[in-house]
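Worked example 3 (structure in, sequence out).
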């Protein structure tokens, strides 16, 4: 199920955090752009977590830009969830998918 999205963001550029932007695009699917100082080591795992989170929230036609500053896995997931919820304009999330 595809949902209408607006541009939104979550997080900071502080150490141990991630800044996540969600931008609607015309193409189908989920595009991920990653900038991280640990991309060579953890890039695949970060991309997998972002894709898994976005897929679980049933979004598509979106570009997700992650600027990672050494965030742990659960922080990345929470930032992606928050950015998507803001992009959807949802005040009350569906907790069953989070």
């Amino acid at each position: 199920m595809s949902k209408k999205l607006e541009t939104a963001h979550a997080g900071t550029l502080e150490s141990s955090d991630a800044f996540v932007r969600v931008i609607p695009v015309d193409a189908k699917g989920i595009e991920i752009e990653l900038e991280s100082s640990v991309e060579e080591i953890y890039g695949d795992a970060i991309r997998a977590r972002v894709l898994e989170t976005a897929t679980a929230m049933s979004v598509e036609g979106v570009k997700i830009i992650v600027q990672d500053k050494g965030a742990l896995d659960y922080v990345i997931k929470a930032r992606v969830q928050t950015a998507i919820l803001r992009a959807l304009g949802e005040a009350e999330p569906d907790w069953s998918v989070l």
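Notes: The mean pLDDT is 93. The chain is about 35% helix and 25% strand.
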